Amino acid sequence: MNKPLLATLAALVITGAGMAPAAAATVTQKPAAETKSATPTLKAVNFAGTVSLSNCSGSVIRFPASADSDPALVMTNGHCLETGFPEPGEVIVGQSSSRSFGLLNASATRVGTLRANKVVYSTMTDTDVTIYQLTTTYAQIKSTYGISALTVQDTHPTAGTAITVVSGYWKRTYACSIDGFVYRLKEGDWTWKDSVRYTSACKTIGGTSGSPVVDNATGKVVAVNNTGNEDGERCTENNPCEVDANGNVTVRYGINYAEETYLIPACFTTGNKLDLNASGCTLPRP
Q1: Fold that domain 8-44+153-260 belongs to in CATH
Q2: The pTM is what?
Q3: How far is CA 263 from the centre of its chain?
Q4: Would you say 157 and 215 are in contact if contact means Cβ atoms under 8 Å apart?
Q5: Does the N-terminal or the C-terminal CB of the chain have fewer CB atoms within 10 Å?
Q6: CA–CA separation, 229 vs 204, rounded Å?
């Protein structure tokens, strides 16, 4: 998992979207070759709407049906939750929170502080996501800071799409393409479904946990950055492995991953209210 940076800076080695410093290891499978499509046009991508957390990255998000008057939401990883990693099978809904977020403008300057009043949803089962509700609306953020939320795409992303991972923590971007999709991505005790695999150019590091993965052509969020194989180990923490539908395991040393977000909008109804029983909502339930 993208390492929350509580211990990373002390170690002075930060790598791969994982939770621990990497060490040199034998390559189990070489990274996929970069293609021309991995050279993106960055016109639609900047830092506006991204946020920095105490140990991770994130973004202010909205859904296609969200209204300007709705309470705004922030998305990051499940493993960035301030109360610790959710256990396998655990789903947290409606947990009180007063977490703060540094809001960035287009040029990555921090322009203000946003605050949550609750964790709307958090899990590391099937996906790796935490969604916070803020004390401010989208309209208030726009009026005060001139910044709009990033819209979460509600359709499945496409292989070959040029993307940018935008880290509010590091104020840094990583450009590559979607190399493909992973039936099951297993890391330690956690398993994620239909994960995004990046081409090798996206060398995300600790602190990029929770960064929005933005489609360069549309500016919409298609995934949330979360992990990478740091030292070539098989299915261990910081070293996720790919498992296909037949149970075959592939290890891709140095390759990083994200979790798709297109399933999330269906679980939010009028007023940005979470409804896990809504039609089309397939997120894990408590």
Answers
A1: Thrombin, subunit H (2.40.10)
A2: 0.88
A3: 14
A4: yes
A5: C
A6: 11
Which residues, including other chains, have CB under 8 Å from residue 248's CB and lie 6 or more apart? none
Q: How do residues 136-167 score in pLDDT, each as one tens digit?
A: 999 999 999 999 999 999 999 999 999 999 99
Per CATH, the number for 50-152 is 2.40.10
pLDDT in tens, 75-123: 999 999 999 999 999 999 999 999 999 999 999 999 999 999 999 999 9
Q: What Cα–Cα distance (Å) separates residue 214 from each residue in 41, 79, 185, 258?
A: 12, 20, 21, 11
Residue type, 16: G
Query: Residues spanned by CATH 2.40.10 within the chain?
Result: 8-44+153-260, 50-152
- Report the relative pairing of strands 221-228 and 256-260 from DSSP bridges: antiparallel
Determine the residue type at 33.
A
Residue 79 dihedral angles phi and psi, to the nearest 5°: -80, 0
